[in-house]
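Regression test attached.
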Amino acid sequence: VATNLDRGGRRPAVRLLLLVCLQLAALPAAAAKWKDPTPAEKQIVEDASKGLVGAVYLEKESESLGDRYRVYVRAKILSTTGYDVATVDSIAQDARAIEGRTVGPTGKVTELAKKDVMSRTVLKAAGWTIKRKGFTMPALEPGCFIEYSYEEPGAFGSESGFHTEILFQDRYPVLRQEVRTPRQFPFSSTMRNMKGVQIKLSEEGNRFLYSASDAPAVVVEPYGLPPGERAASLVFGYVFSEIGGVGPEEYWAKVTELALAETVSSEMAKPSKLQKVLAGIPPATDPAERIGGLYRWVQTNIKNREVLKAGETEPRGGWKPNDDAADTLSRGSGTSADLTILFLSLLRADGWKSRVVYTADREYRYFRPEIPSVFQLSGIVVEISDARLKNPMYASFEHPMLPFGLLPWNRIGVTGWAVDLEKKSGTAQPIPGPPAEQSAVHTVWKIRMDENGDGRVERARRMSGLRAFEIRAPIWSEGLDTWEKQAREGYPKDPIPGELESLRFENLEAPEKELLDTAISMRKGLGASLPGFRLTVTPVRLAAMRNVFVKSSRDESIQFPFPFVYEDAFEIEAPEGFAPDTLPDPAERKTAAGIYRISAEKGEGARITVRRRFELLRPSGGREMYGAFRTLFETAEREDEGYTVVFRKPAPAGGKKP
Amino acid sequence: MPRASRFRVVAAAALLFAAPAARAARAPDWVLRARGTTVAPALLEARPAPDAVALWSQRIVTAAAGSGSTRLYEREAIRILTAAGTSEGTFTAHYDDDSKVSVEGAWTLHADGTAEELDLDDAVTVQLAHPEYFTDEHQMAFRPPRLAPGEIAAYALSRKSRRDVYQWLVPLQRTIPVAAQEVAIDLPDGWRHSWRLSRVPEGYAGALSGEGGAKASYPFGPQRGLPSEDAAPPSVDLAATMEISVLPPAGEFSQFAFRSWNDVAAWFQRKSLPARRDAGTDPVAAGADPRLAAATWVQEKIRYVAVEVGEGGYVPREPALVTRRLYGDCKDKSFLLLALLGKRGIEAFPVLTRARSAGWIDPEFPSPIQFNHLILAVRVPAKTGLPAEIMLSDGPAVLFDATDAWTPWGRIPGELQGSRGLVVRANGGELMDFPFAPPTVNRMERVVEGSLSETGSLTAEVVEKTDGALGERALYQSWTPQQRTDVFAGYAADHVTGSRASDVSFSHLEERSTPMEARFKISAPGFLRRTGGLVLLPVTPFSVAPDRVLRGGERRSPINLGVPARYELKTRLKLPYGHVSDGLPDPVEAENAWALYRLVVTEEAGHILARELYEVRKPLVPTSELAAWKSFEAAVAKGSGARAVIMTKPAS
């Protein structure tokens, strides 16, 4: 990441006439309205080995004129799968100068007719109507060239905002891309180079030119990077006049002082208003227990308005906004941020040192302190870094079903911006996640088989950490009825179809405890008959791991939400008259990503127990780790789907010898 | 409506409904009365239990004597039973430039008897358009305020009909149960109406069709919710629907009244006149078969882009414009082909139709609203024997869907096989049944040839040939080479766990008239499973056995098997050196009127050979035959997971 922060500088004004002349001379589409294909471009053909599939962008040019944004695009269609490159949707309703043409493989030119530019209502509600324009180019054929241009109002057109990211990679390769901005421009810019794409900055008269060439197409991978991190991009952050055009360090220092710390500090409640609450929370000698008590008090006594329980509604007349933590306390409800600030207030009043950590949402993007834009941040968590604790602890109020010390997966394993409210200073702070063993599912499956290969299955699970939260959160929001209904509908569609007879939870709304559930079901086809009066049972198919890493290679890193452990014991009882026959050998596979183990043993009577343990110890890794993830999941899937135990019964009189 | 678009509007609505504006209000009397509706216990006994129940549903068909426009008024009160049921309180309605929806109000009747009314500004509207599928259809969604389980959501709205259509389809059954409902007719004096029930509603013993005057009321008793079941026909084929035609007085608005299929054909004939023009310069190179040449040109060159605004929804564009743009929708492509065939002296007729997945076309209800697609019937001089051939009243013709880029001349896409269509001619219309292609055309043949190593791994080549309705050419053509490779990697791993696919190649990917072949190699360590002294060999990797149909016992819908088709798997697996079979699975054969399944496993010269066959003969298994289907499935289950036992060859 390279940041260029001269954009908001107070450069002396140049003479208006010169400025206008320079700008006019360099408008990308105005220089020459359309460009004929060059001989070299005519030679470009679909070639998967070169990444040329479907279509290729020959040129993408855009220029901000401060209050307007011009776009010019030229592409070649290589096959019918690339036709989508010729459709442009969701440009501003007041966009103008929308023009385009298609140059056929034989040179025939077909213009985009004005009446073929469509206008649609994207959304109409609450007295607002949002409209957008779009078009699709005419006369498409493999081998044709398309080019179009348009101009939208705003510094970056319809994408304008305080934080704007211009991607330098697309669904198809981009041979050349250029972005121009005025030197006098109220935005900082940061180049985020990815996947070999280097965005270069140069000066061009009174403008800055950002350019890159030969950017490969973006490919979306399973468990890959968040959408906001997949492509090389140019990031513009609005420079507020109070902060000015300064380097990232100074930017964050000023933003922290003037906005991030101030916002929270000004909303904290005075300790005197919290004494009654503090007095009602049982004292504890263990610091973590005391702090946990404060956390639980907020979680259980203050309703989170943003995550209502299924069936709850807002009060008549709507929620009244809280001005500060005292309001939150008196009204007994607030947003996640309100609850966080009340908790911070309680910590301070109770004498605990803490910081507020602003975070990005890892589901969409990472926080990068090199980028001077506060709009990367979308959530807050609390770090309790008191010297009386062995290690810093973290707390989040994003969901009422989060226990103390557990953060949602999208806030862990990445860097946040920690703000010391007393010093009004900030620092980049990695937020750790829990180890695999703390997000575990331990399951005992009691299976009673019949001769047809069907089985009655009693499943008892113990879930902890984020695995338990994954169950609790949707049940909280959608209701247990809905969960059970979906489970009932899901059982028949399972690879081993079945009918759910009963489902029971314990500790469902006690997030500090392990979540227990017991399900009883009938499953069809869990076993199959085998020549020789044998019955095979493949029990781990009930909980088989799925391997999504089936491609031979991978372009980007691997990102699982969090590490976890699955431990399962399958206790199989044979049908009457059958006895255990053969057991498979144990298997184990360790890779840099985790461990898989499976084994079988004979139990009491006609029982066989299969034990399987899967540990994803490393939830993320670079592309060089792909083999480790692939081997781990491939092994797990293969063994889970194929690990077969055999029961046998004596041949009937006169039957074939077993 | 595209599913994604529906999600978009509902998602947008959900965001806005987070805090809808509301005001305390008195609910209309009909809502208060609905609260007292007795819900028959049988309605709530369904499994899974319903999340909501419609206490009262009223639809009133009206017309204005002066303008001729007709309106359908809807009133509905729904009791929310569970948290999930609150989504049933999100009401939707759609309209376009020719029709309108006016919401009169939406109310929540709380458990304490108080009511709140939605501020109608909070209704959310989205136009369901994209540059490549541009329609003037708007979807509106709204939800009464602060709705919770146990409470009643109610709304009243009216829909103005498209100006060309005086007909309404009023469903009497839906996914949630309906406790009581009425369909009322309230027309100006001198107007009449006719009606018909597509299916018999539950508990109904009256006539199934009739005619009436300007005023009428049709009450219907409790209706259970329609279940959502796998492999079921489309829901419109399961629900009882009241088909209503508004009949103006003689001589008034006669062009809007459809009493016969000839009326519908005449309507479309009028609408399509502007498109019955010359295509301009003939772009099609001469070919030995002029029909094939023209049809293929349109398939290959004209991209599917639908611009359906106003009359564009049902009026085709001039062929010359389509030729210039090289894009168009089904009507545009069909009329361009019609023009190109006309240049060659070949007669063709537009055929209004819809895919089977959109529901059966009711032959007793002549109406344009039953159609959403257009294809052609191309006259042929004599019978051809082609699967797409139909016999018109005055000779044979071949159906052709120019919109489908990869179904060759002489065949129709699987979705249209077994459907119906209205052949539009200048002097009337002919409603025709479309043929199913036989299983010899709709077929898939999979061959797995491989060898097993002593360590238990399998290396094999898989060749899959597909044709007809099972043809996968369109799918592969829509993917890039990398996507195709990725798909096969996933496909192989799904069928043989832990396997890796490589060397993906295709034959006849471009040649419409030849079955397409996909070919790939797999390597699968651990394919042979050792358990103790036994070595187990799955004999049908890449099985073609049908999926189980779920909830056989409680099922209420027929089982939809698709189209008559033949699926065949042949495997030939070479045993590891020094191994022989110790036991082969018994042969399996199951057969009934709807399907055939067969598995035979043999050993031959060190190879295990398996031949699996699944053939669909009749595509719809009626509910009265579910027991027969279950026993068929039980047999199939034995075959599809069959394993042989192999062992080291004993010393001689």
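Expected vs. actual: identical. The CA atoms of residues 287 and 388 of chain A lie 7 Å apart.
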